[in-house]
Specification:
Strand 6, helix 7 (172-182) and strand 7 form a beta-alpha-beta unit. It contains 12 helices and 16 strands. 51% of the residues are buried. By secondary structure, it is α+β, with helices and mostly antiparallel strands.
């Protein structure tokens, strides 16, 4: 079938599905108690970093993920930064991550003064490959006194940060086993995977900590916000302390015992997020139904739709297709956006960005292949109940 005809079919299918002539990539839905909770914040006067909704969010996120502790923060990036600090990552060390991710993953590593090391992703999960991680460690690292060192750079590898790409959970149990064997702290960048599970366990639960984002384009939003989860009480307590300027509790005196950060989630944002989380199951159900429709439709066109990989229950945050080559990708992107249907490519690989291009990396073969071919398609919740 002629490409233009295929593109016309795609655009028509999407516009019909969303019952709209202009379709965003992913936009929030406000169909519940958002206005009510925001009004409660304003009426109470608690609109900043203290308030009942902040406490509620931490309780709700612990319940949703099954974690013992949750700490609300101002962004997913802030939560990842704090998680790395609490994991002991320091300047001059190395942290292993993946090249196919949003730049914030590597930025948070850089905030600590550590250097990112990029290992390849798997084709099916689009997240960190356990075999690539294991190969890199076996070929380049040694273990001394229970710690992992890069024998080429002579630097301590203090953490590993896989990211669950577009809500597809990577083979995180295998990664956890490898990290445990090498004495490396595992921090999950679960920014995109709220509601996603691996072998029945929620993402973010496999390492020392997991972090989530609630940016405006996520499956549930607080406008701007993030949450760190952990089963480690000391980790959670330190995360809360460092994200609230390390203020020592006192009825009226101001005393601080660490150089810390003003990373707390404001009560206004928490109120918005609480209402969003109340409808999370509804959002997940709607997105799964859309994914099933997309899979059937694209299969009929001979185009690969990115389905959830083995053992993963995905939230299908951003859905996507894989085209034959970069030219086909760019052609569809241009056509769709000109027709008011927003599509986007995957990110440019972090390992190719100017500020990270000199970092240590493996061949990144799969990541390069995927980055050239992935097209993210409209994935927002279709409900029109507001």
């Amino acid at each position: 079938m002629e490409r233009c005809k295929i593109y016309e079919k795609i655009i028509k299918f999407i516009k019909d599905e969303y019952k709209a002539q202009s379709v965003a990539l992913h936009e929030p839905k406000f169909i519940g108690n958002e206005m009510r909770y925001l009004k409660q914040c304003i009426d109470s006067g608690f609109v900043s970093s203290v308030g009942q909704f902040v406490t509620d969010i931490e309780r709700d996120m612990a319940r949703i993920t099954g974690a013992k502790y949750a700490v609300a923060m101002s962004s997913g990036t802030a939560a990842l930064h704090i998680a790395l600090i609490c994991a002991g990552v320091r300047a001059g060390e190395e942290v292993i991550t993946q090249p196919l991710s949003f730049v914030a993953t590597a930025n948070a590593i850089s905030y600590t003064g550590a250097s990112a090391v990029f290992v390849d992703v798997d084709m099916d999960t689009m997240g960190m490959s356990p075999s690539s991680l294991s190969k890199f460690l076996d070929e380049n690292c040694i273990k001394k006194d229970g710690k992992c060192y890069n024998k080429n750079s002579d630097k301590f590898i203090s953490a590993c940060v896989p990211m669950h790409t577009f809500g597809m959970v990577c083979k995180i149990d295998e990664i956890a086993q490898i990290c445990n064997m090498w004495g490396i702290n595992l921090i999950e960048d679960a920014a995109e995977s709220l509601g996603s599970k691996y072998k029945g366990t929620h993402s973010g639960r496999f390492g020392l900590a997991g972090v989530f984002s609630f940016n405006g384009n996520k499956i549930a939003t607080s406008g701007g916000g993030g949450v760190l989860i952990s089963d480690d009480e000391n980790m959670a307590k330190m995360a809360k302390h460092l994200s609230t300027t390390a203020k020592v509790p006192h009825p009226y005196e101001y005393n601080h015992d660490y150089i810390a950060y003003n990373y707390r989630m404001p009560n206004l944002n928490a109120g918005l997020l609480k209402a969003q989380l109340e409808n999370l199951d509804l959002y997940l159900k709607d997105k799964r139904e859309l994914a099933q429709k997309y899979a059937k439709f694209f299969d009929s066109l001979g185009i690969k739709f990115i389905n959830e990989p083995k053992d993963c229950l995905s939230n299908y945050w951003l859905m996507g297709i894989i085209l034959d080559d970069k030219n086909s990708r760019d052609e569809l992107l241009k056509y769709a956006n000109e027709k008011s249907v927003m599509m986007r490519p995957a990110w440019r690989l972090i390992s190719e960005l100017d500020m990270y291009k000199n970092c240590i990396k493996d061949e990144n073969k799969n990541a390069k292949y995927l980055a050239d071919r992935i097209v993210n398609i409209p994935s927002g919740v279709r409900l029109n109940l507001a």
